[in-house]
Amino acid sequence: MVKELLEHMRSKLPYESVAFLLGSTENGQFTAEEIVEVSNAAHSRVEFAVDPQELFNVYNKGREIVSIFHSHPGPAVPSDLDAFYMKLNPVPWLIASSVNGELRAYVLNKKVSEIKVIII
Ligand SMILES: [Zn+2]
User: Fold this and answer.
1) How far, in Å, are 24, 59, 86 from residue 32 at the CA level?
2) Which domain CATH number covers 53?
3) 18 CA → ligand 1 middle, Å
């Protein structure tokens, strides 16, 4: 699944890439079972946006969205804008760096904190 995400990221360069991870939540652990790649409606190297119709299609699958993935052209740490959107979308956010392929996950409680990614 990580390989898929990184391939998606590389295929969208130089723009940021975006995807939704669908799956299940149990005991505070989020398990991703399906990746839905979407396009970056912002066509930007430094930010992303999701087309409402594409977002609707993701919701329409009727599965739980366990994470939002996007890539950065720099370190895999949330930007201020990401932190703002994390408030509106309180799921773990996965960020990959297109510089070094690093993948990290974050949640927003009172502040943004990193959580562990377990690759199975
Ligand atoms: Zn970002």
Assistant:
1) 7, 15, 18
2) 3.40.140.10
3) 10
